Amino acid sequence: xxxxxxxxxxxxxxxxxxxxxxxxxxxxxxxxxxxxxxxxxxxxxxxxxxxxxxxxxxxxxxxxxxxxxxxxxxxxxxxxxxxxxxxxxxxxxxxxxxxxxxxxxxxxxxxxxxxxxxxxxxxxxxxxxxxxxxxxxxxxxxxxxxxxxxxxxxxxxxxxxxxxxxxxxxxxxxxxxxxxxxxxxxxxxxxxxxxxxxxxxxxxxxxxxxxxxxxxxxxxxxxxxxxxxxxxxxxxxxxxxxxxxxxxxxxxxxxxxxxxxxxxxxxxxxxxxxxxxxxxxxxxxxxxxxxxxxxxxxxxxxxxxxxxxxxxxxxxxxxxxxxxxxxxxxxxxxxxxxxxxxxxxxxxxxxxxxxxxxxxxxxxxxxxxxxxxxxxxxxxxxxxxxxxxxxxxxxxxxxxxxxxxxxxxxxxxxxxxxxxxxxxxxxxxxxxxxxxxxxxxxxxxxxxxxxxxxxxxxxxxxxxxxxxxxxxxxxxxxxxxxxxxxxxxxxxxxxxxxxxxxxxxxxxxxxxxxxxxxxxxxxxxxxxxxxxxxxxxxxxxxxxxxxxxxxxxxxxxxxxxxxxxxxxxxxxxxxxxxxxxxxxxxxxxxxxxxxxxxxxxxxxxxxxxxxxxxxxxxxxxxxxxxxxxxxxxxxxxxxxxxxxxxxxxxxxxxxxxxxxxxxxxxxxxxxxxxxxx
Amino acid sequence: xxxxxxxxxxxxxxxxxxxxxxxxxxxxxxxxxxxxxxxxxxxxxxxxxxxxxxxxxxxxxxxxxxxxxxxxxxxxxxxxxxxxxxxxxxxxxxxxxxxxxxxxxxxxxxxxxxxxxxxxxxxxxxxxxxxxxxxxxxxxxxxxxxxxxxxxxxxxxxxxxxxxxxxxxxxxxxxxxxxxxxxxxxxxxxxxxxxxxxxxxxxxxxxxxxxxxxxxxxxxxxxxxxxxxxxxxxxxxxxxxxxxxxxxxxxxxxxxxxxxxxxxxxxxx
Lengths: 677, 269
Fold this sequence. Notes:
The complex is a heterodimer.
Chain A: H1 5-19, H2 23-30, E1 43-49, E2 58-64, E3 67-73, H3 86-89, H4 91-95, E4 105-107, E5 116-118, H5 121-137, E6 143-147, E7 152-153, H6 154-166, E8 171-173, H7 183-190, E9 195-197, E10 204-208, H8 212-215, H9 219-231, E11 239-244, H10 249-253, E12 256-259, H11 265-278, H12 284-290, E13 291-292, H13 294-300, H14 306-313, H15 317-329, E14 333-337, H16 342-354, E15 364-366, E16 375-376, E17 386-390, H17 394-397, H18 399-408, E18 412-415, H19 421-424, E19 428-430, E20 440-445, E21 451-456, H20 469-480, H21 489-500, E22 515-517, E23 535-536, H22 538-545, E24 559-564, H23 578-581, E25 595-598, H24 600-605, E26 613-618, E27 621-629, E28 637-641, E29 670-676
Parallel strand pairs in A: 6-8, 6-17, 8-16, 10-11, 10-14, 11-12, 13-23, 17-18, 18-19, 24-28, 25-27
Antiparallel strand pairs in A: 1-2, 2-3, 4-5, 4-19, 7-20, 9-15, 20-21, 21-22, 24-29, 26-27, 26-29
Helix pairs in contact in A: 5-20, 6-20, 7-16, 11-14, 11-15, 11-16, 13-22
Chain B: H1 5-35, E1 46-51, H2 60-68, H3 76-80, E2 89-95, E3 102-108, H4 117-121, E4 127-129, E5 135-137, H5 147-151, E6 157-159, H6 168-171, E7 186-188, H7 193-205, H8 218-222, E8 228-232, H9 239-244, E9 249-250, E10 262-265
Parallel strand pairs in B: 1-10
Antiparallel strand pairs in B: 1-8, 2-3, 4-5, 6-7, 9-10
């Protein structure tokens, strides 16, 4: 084109106009067009039960081309009512975890060396069967099985059968004090652990030391109950009090946080009980009708004055008096605690007893189901021929007690989808399916007291040579009964059990219900299943009379250690999943590392600054953590989360953080000192 | 055709003027529409209400969002550098000290501003406000300048410092509706926009309009305390509209005039 005056003007005008295009025209031209979402393959929704914890939530799994790619809650399921907890939401990471065990393993080399040989299931069953017969021939306890408390499902039934076939009194459970309810107190005072806490009935909820929003065994229900206590009933809003040595999530969400020294929950509860009795502010009619040992209790708690308790716990007397007034004016109350020392558990629960909070229609009810006859935390005066560990990790959650047992037990077999610390020191590792691959047939009690039967097939076919835990126990059972191993025995057992329970057909498709109200009746009419038919306060009275008040400061170890169990790592499980690692500490945005919450005054004494590395040392040893200086911490108390510090358990858990259970005493307050690392 | 210089210039000026007038008119119309609540055209305006009185900070929403939107796995190193991306996160706000501290745990998705500061600074139109009020992000256009990441007063825009890695098995669980972001782009919560598209597809295949509840984000669906509500703010009957005008309602950094479409309901009776 010739560059004439005319052409220059022409081009100039066109470009000029173009550059002057107003914003909206630019927007029309430049605004991205929203494409339709990419085409996907065959989409299907399946219903099953979440197996990430024993709560029994109903979940809906989105399968695309046969692969689960999403998960949500089932809206009408009585346990979760459509919600999920973070663990349930992370269930796909468990399914697709690259470090899942793919076949049975036999130890090669010395125990704990980490050398394994892949073997067949037949070999594993044969060898374990031989171990059991050998121990039996030598007159030893042939088999001991260790499992989680409070689950009632098809694999537990078969484990019972297996344990029964191999001997007597050989089923044990592993306690997790931070995440269990005060079951020992309920058993001692009401004769059963099978209880129902209908917290939404309470106008006043007081938790002694139990960070229930993070550590309650049924995560989804705990969050829902909180929402209901807050805004569920029109015009009525429950008052929530948290008595705890740490400013936990439950404390932050409560109306009042009463900050106390660790290990003083029981003392405070008894001081409040004494005061309420003195003032005549207890439910005298209820106590007369339903309680045994009240007079002795009243006599023996005489030394638990508000003043003395206030000094021991570091709480102003006024605060405790105000708490008594709350108990007086807000009825009914619910007083909850976790599974600390038997004294603490019973002392806390005694408040429910004297206030008459137990019984039909009240916050605390006695359930109708039978307790299972499993003993907790065995001492094993005589070691069993075969120790069968069923999806628990005692070497991580209770290392002091279990290290020696696991070293000395002649034969240890661990059932787990991952190579946990306990699996690492086992002779046989029996890999079970991931939660989504498992069929489920289990009984649950929802927090509002409904008995529920869940029955569902797995959402996806097993990816590896793994088995359903029930199938593993059945294989072992067949072996010791010298029956021919039948590959389909578990399937037919599952189907016949479904028929017996009237739960057929086993649901799975999106339209079907995977749950039904269990044929078992709802809570009992009585308040106790003890032979006397009454709530027993005698044992607590005995403990109160011989109570040793906490000693003064120890110069070598000036601080107290407070452990807590974040929801992400409930029961010490969860650090193997990266999405759970990232939500470990919602209150301080801490993740992927063990942190220690310290008050600024305490930190200053030890020359520690925020985010410094610190050593926390007790008489048992020391661990490293990242200091988080927070003015919300109780001075002199160091709070550390449980769940990190794995030496095994897959690539994301291994070697990250520290395990404070290695330096903590069981059922006692641990004293520590801090040094800058 | 012969044309005088004068007439040519006149025509040019006229057409440019007309273009301007049309554009200004359109702009003016848009502003007017916004003033009136933009409901005139009848399209939905998606919004969220988060009840802090019910929320317990359990983080189920965080994990559900991560799973739904193919978010990076994370590692101790990335955590130490503050580079773990979570479109939904729990923001702890603490005040006071022992023995009577207070703390709020605030779930923070993108606030989906009606006047988003991130859009104004984007030099390449990679981030935009769509017809239904969702602040979108086009990864293929983003040049990774991070202006928007800095402009967002809520720190809800993130930069992918590295291309996220998934072990082969883990990659099987990726949501096929959502693309995996490459290295060097900004990303953000899109109110699970892909779910809206799927819901629209479904509704049109059934020959019906979109109904309340057809489109829910992953965080809303997961919340065990039912603390999060989602829906059309233009529909005055919707739960989210009702909650957004509750006396407890407030917005984060309201004074900035960003007009967020995420409303919080304060704690207390």
